[in-house]
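pasting for the record
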Amino acid sequence: MADIREFDVIVLGAGPAGEVCAGRVADGGLSVALLERELIGGECSYYACMPSKALLRPGQALGEARRVPGSAEAATGELDVGAVLRRRDEVIHDLDDASQLPWLEKRSIALERGTGTLIGELEVAVGDHALRARRAVVLASGSGAKIPPIPGLREASPWTNREATTARAVPASLLVLGGGVVGVEMAQAYASLGAEVTIVEAAPRLIASEEEFASELVRESLERLGVVVILGTQASAVRREPSAGPVTLELEDGRVLSAEELLVAVGRRPHTDAVGLESVGLEPGGYVEVDELMRVPGHPWLYVIGDANGRALLTHMGKYQARIAADDILGRQPTPQHAVVPRVIFTEPQVAAAGHTLQSAREAGMNVRAIDATVGANAGGSFVGHGAPGIVRLVVDEDRRVLVGATFTGVEVAESLHAATIAIVGQVPLERLWQAVPSFPTRSEVWLKLLEAYGL
């Protein structure tokens, strides 16, 4: 290769984690090269978090309007699907990342368009030239949809999250393979936009890693929308004939389903198979092991953040890891904690959780107790989510009398989660939480109900 340009830090991948890391080290006075082969802003901005919420929000806003006397009488029409899709296009900037560039330019971050590949310690190839890092290389290559080895599936040209969130029209019918976060969110979005939706999940319940009551509330909500929910069976074969015709899905229990489109939402795979890990003695294709500071053991110059390390495949956790890596590179000696992972499923009811579920806490060997309350059993519930189902659970470590987990379900509960996250991360004693007085009339008074139920 020709001449080698040098930077203090090279970041491979300009998704949320890569952007945050690049920006933070640049703000700390280091020179940075940021490499991206697709769009600046990554999967979340264009094909996942942002467009999916744009598709979900209109139906949920209409549902809330219909729960309120006065606005219910005005909310008599149906969703304008064309307007929903146009607004989605605005949110993702028509898949154009030009608006992201001034942020990089302001920090003098050198953007390289292309696939970055490790070619040795502190060296990266991109296109026909190479770059060298003086301090660190940060791998933030993200993940893509996993396509399971089901006969005929790839040949049937299924949707992944990318096609589902950027579709130009709503199909008449949609099969959703997988009942995790992507599966339930897209099932609800497309059902609210008029599609006939069937969701198939191999596990005995939807969103199986969350509390059981959350799974049940989401299932009931989907079924009220007309979604057919099939649990406890797997797909055995897929076919689409002719190529542009309907998709047929065969299940192991003998049922045969058909729809205009099929969305595969059974998990993610890290983009680590073509980034040159083998050039530094690491195994490509899987999640890359890192320590608490996001460094690869045996390679103190190499950091891996976000989905590529497999710790928590969530945008906000990738950004958190980016700050840890950046601060370590800058010599700030960060003191991370990785145990508390906040997460939100933007169905209706929303599922907002942080830390442990009751089951995971017990599996971790904790002496815990669950405290439950109804989210709307307070004055604030008269005005937001009136009459809609919702349960809140706190998981209490009885030995230390602190929270180790919390789950909120209900209408628009996502913004309630951060208080619980702070309580868990801060290990705030329950007696101290009792002194935090919620305002009236808000749904935050559910905290009083929960602490009273505990015995305070």
